[in-house]
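thread: overnight batch results

M.L. [08:02]
morning all. the overnight job finished for the chain we discussed friday. pasting input first so we're all looking at the same thing
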Amino acid sequence: MLRTAQRLFAAQGLDVSLDEIARRAGVGPGTVHRHFPTKQALYLAVAIDQLRHLVAEGRRSPAPTIRLPCSHCWRG
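M.L. [08:03]
and the structure it wrote out:
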């Protein structure tokens, strides 16, 4: 349901209805409304889910090597 909501929010913004999200997710409207009483609650859940995925991906990735210019290359 969160993936469907994320795709619809990305495509249609907050104009998409909870009923449309339910229909596209293949669940009844009551299911969506029971878990997310408002569109804002669902939007927040989608945002938190996306942040969790980004954090997990960042933890799996090696830390980048940052190369700074040597001190004699600085012109100040």
